[in-house]
């Protein structure tokens, strides 16, 4: 540890720390533009100048290492004058765009020019002008505002892993761009907006829409993938205008995937805002009493073992628990939350969780990916894998389609179950790599379980983890990567076939006469038996709604208080940002009203009672998270010898249209037209 004195305050910092970090440890604010805690040091902007005793001139604190006994001054006349000079240079060519700039009110350059700049300008020459670049449908560029801090260049290369941005020319002629004009291909490109300290990179869908002080800000959770990204939902009146990430070091750090960030316009399109009832073969709008009366009449006239329910991929835990309670009150055990047909064994939580944890990826020293594409299924988790890979000594093997670009180097060890068989036999070369690792990690994609041999794939993957010593009382290396934010909570509460109950396949093929679909938009309507009476409860008129006999309009995740479990089993609460449109209501309230019409007691009358009953039945749904390790190495149900021969395929082939909200979004539709299906590029 080095002892450093900052403005008379003595602090101890690790050897190798920078002067800027020492100043922050002393509670001193240091202005900066190019420096970012999660990116490499560039030292471009020189705004972080400080005075170091015995140094001949002010030094850039972001790139200057500390030394024991160093004395630093952060607010001396020399420092103030140096910062004013730097700010004057930065503003020489910066346009006077503040009144029309979307960064206004959130601009680092605005704030620091007021705090550290001069009160006048000596520049009289003409400002330079830079042509704007077209880098896709999500990012708007006004490159005349760029101050060449290179944050965007470093983020693209280091975090996103798609080195598509760079600088051309030198000095005053330097421009940031993509060399050959093209759309950015990263699923994390929206984070460029957050890290840009000026208004050079802004959100194209949000352009000229609002000012930050006009927005109501609500904490939420992104449910459009299973990462559990912490978000802030910005609304004005009855509309979501933008979604931004919040910092959570254990989950998403400060990054967010593009689909969750930019598909917010889908929350107001194709919405179900009134109940509908099929009369004489056609859906007609009706009142709530009429819709619930039709539901009650049908369910009362149907035997309990002929009633079924399916929970979708974006549902909150409260809604799923309420529907499970209703089905229990009716005497039905026909429940399923695996609308993709994944063969998940829910008898133990560690059979279906991301047990290593997202932050725990940084502890691993070897990784085997089976039937998953983390880049499209969970871009933020993929960035964490890349972060670990960039530190070195992290061999990665992938069993799946060949030639997929995951943004990091890997060893393509096979395409299908044949590779798993050779690993179990101990003859595959990558098995030796896993056995030599101290903390090996297996990442199994949920799509690999949505196959006829899914149970065998699960059993084989667990057996591989056991054989390479990834299952221990101090390390749990088996991980299942889910696809959406509502998939984990129903598993944790047991929203699965009970004793004598029918699973999804049996229900769809005519095993039930009445089928309640709770946000189950991933089901092909043609797969539902023609004679089945379908009750659809959800927020978008997506695929399943077209097959419904009764439609009950529910609330999207931004319109209700809801608990969601991410892929690692972390329970997080999303808050109500705005009211549901029209006559739509919170899903648990709809189910409670239906239960009352059926004369069924569900055990709760308000949200507090519902949550208390839910947590009592499934403690994992209590807000918070405790990491667990493997105390029992016995595997899930399934015969590893029953593996098939078909190669694994990607679970998400069109990233921008993967869920009902995204499919309703014009922005995501434009992205789909721009990018097309997920590309298969050569691995490094």
TrEMBL record:
Enzyme class, broadest EC rank? translocase
Record-linked PANTHER family: NADH-UBIQUINONE OXIDOREDUCTASE 75 KDA SUBUNIT, MITOCHONDRIAL, RESPIRATORY NITRATE REDUCTASE
Q: Residues in domain 2Fe-2S ferredoxin-type?
A: 2-78
The protein depicted here goes by the name: NADH-quinone oxidoreductase
Q: Which organism is it from?
A: Falsiroseomonas stagni DSM 19981
Domain (4Fe-4S His(Cys)3-ligated-type) spans 78-117
Q: Offer a single GO CC term for the protein.
A: membrane
Ranges of residues in domain 4Fe-4S Mo/W bis-MGD-type = 215-271
Co-factor binding comment: Binds 1 [2Fe-2S] cluster per subunit.
EC code(s) of this entry: 7.1.1.-
Q: What is this enzyme's catalytic activity, as reactions? A: a quinone + NADH + 5 H(+)(in) = a quinol + NAD(+) + 4 H(+)(out)
A Pfam family annotated for this chain is: Fer4_Nqo3
* InterPro entries assigned to the protein according to its UniProt record, in alphabetical order: 2Fe-2S_ferredoxin-like_sf, 2Fe-2S_ferredoxin-type, Mopterin_OxRdtase, Mopterin_OxRdtase_4Fe-4S_dom, NADH_UbQ_OxRdtase_75kDa_su_CS, NADH_UbQ_OxRdtase_ferredoxin, NADH_UbQ_OxRdtase_Gsu, NADH_UbQ_OxRdtase_Gsu_4Fe4S-bd
| Keyword match NAD | yes
Q: What does this protein do?
A: NDH-1 shuttles electrons from NADH, via FMN and iron-sulfur (Fe-S) centers, to quinones in the respiratory chain. Couples the redox reaction to proton translocation (for every two electrons transferred, four hydrogen ions are translocated across the cytoplasmic membrane), and thus conserves the redox energy in a proton gradient.
């Amino acid at each position: 540890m080095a002892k450093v004195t900052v403005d008379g305050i003595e602090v101890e910092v690790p050897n190798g720390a920078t002067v800027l970090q020492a100043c922050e440890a002393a509670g001193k604010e240091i202005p900066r533009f190019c420096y970012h805690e999660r990116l490499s040091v560039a030292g471009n902007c020189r705004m972080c100048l400080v005075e170091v005793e015995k140094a001949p001139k002010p030094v850039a604190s972001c790139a200057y290492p500390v030394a024991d006994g160093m004395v630093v001054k952060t607010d001396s006349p020399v420092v103030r004058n140096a910062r004013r000079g730097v700010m004057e240079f930065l503003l020489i060519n910066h346009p006077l765009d503040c009144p029309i700039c979307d960064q206004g009110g959130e601009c680092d350059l605005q704030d620091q020019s007021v705090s550290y700049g001069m009160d006048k300008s000596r520049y009289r020459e003409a400002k330079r002008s830079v042509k704007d670049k077209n880098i896709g449908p999500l990012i708007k560029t006004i490159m005349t505002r760029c101050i060449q801090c290179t944050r965007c260049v470093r983020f693209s290369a280091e975090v996103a892993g798609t080195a598509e941005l760079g600088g051309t020319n030198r000095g005053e002629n330097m421009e940031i761009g993509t060399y050959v004009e093209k759309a950015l291909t990263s699923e994390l490109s929206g984070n460029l907006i957050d890290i840009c300290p000026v208004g050079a990179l802004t959100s194209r869908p949000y352009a000229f829409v609002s000012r930050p002080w006009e927005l109501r800000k609500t904490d939420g959770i992104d449910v459009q993938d299973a990462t559990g990204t912490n978000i802030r939902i910005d609304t004005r009146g009855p509309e979501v205008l933008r979604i931004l990430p919040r910092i959570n070091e254990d989950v998403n750090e400060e990054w967010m995937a593009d689909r969750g960030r930019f598909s917010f316009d889908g929350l107001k399109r194709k919405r179900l805002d009134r109940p509908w009832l099929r009369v004489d073969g056609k859906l007609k709008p009706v009142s709530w009493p009429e819709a619930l009366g039709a539901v009650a009449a049908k369910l009362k006239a149907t035997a309990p073992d002929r009633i079924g329910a399916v929970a979708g991929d974006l549902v909150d835990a409260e809604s799923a628990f309420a529907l499970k309670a209703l089905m229990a009150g009716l005497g039905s055990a026909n429940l399923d939350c695996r609308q993709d047909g994944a063969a998940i064994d829910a008898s133990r939580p560690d059979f279906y969780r991301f047990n290593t944890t997202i932050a725990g990826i940084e502890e691993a020293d070897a990784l085997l990916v089976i039937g998953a594409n983390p880049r499209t299924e969970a871009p933020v988790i993929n960035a964490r894998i890349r972060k670990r890979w960039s530190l070195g000594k992290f061999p990665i093997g992938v069993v799946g389609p060949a030639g997929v670009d995951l943004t990091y180097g890997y060893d393509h060890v096979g395409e299908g179950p044949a590779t798993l068989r050779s690993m179990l036999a101990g003859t595959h070369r990558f098995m030796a790599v896993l056995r030599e690792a101290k903390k090996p990690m297996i990442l199994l994609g949920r799509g690999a379980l949505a196959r006829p041999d899914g149970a065998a794939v699960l059993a084989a993957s667990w057996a591989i983890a056991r054989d390479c010593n990834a299952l221990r009382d101090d390390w749990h290396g088996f991980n299942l990567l889910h696809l959406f934010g509502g998939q984990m909570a129903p598993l944790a509460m047991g929203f699965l076939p009970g004793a004598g109950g029918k699973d999804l396949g049996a229900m769809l093929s005519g095993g039930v006469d009445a089928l309640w679909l709770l946000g189950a938009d991933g089901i092909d309507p043609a797969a539902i038996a023609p004679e089945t009476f379908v009750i659809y409860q959800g927020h978008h008129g997506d695929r399943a709604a077209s097959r419904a006999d009764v439609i009950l309009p529910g609330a999207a995740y931004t319109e209700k208080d809801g608990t969601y479990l991410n892929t690692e089993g972390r329970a997080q609460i999303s808050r109500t940002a705005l009211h549901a449109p029209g006559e739509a209501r919170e899903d648990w309230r709809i189910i409670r009203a239906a239960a009352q019409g059926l004369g069924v007691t569900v055990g709760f009358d308000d949200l507090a009672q519902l949550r208390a009953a839910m947590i009592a039945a499934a403690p994992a749904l209590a807000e918070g998270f405790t990491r667990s390790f493997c105390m029992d190495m016995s595997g899930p149900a399934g015969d590893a010898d029953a593996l098939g021969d078909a190669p694994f395929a990607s679970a998400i082939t069109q990233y921008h249209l993967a869920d009902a909200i995204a499919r309703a979004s014009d922005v995501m539709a434009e992205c789909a037209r721009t990018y097309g299906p997920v590309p298969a590029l050569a691995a490094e």
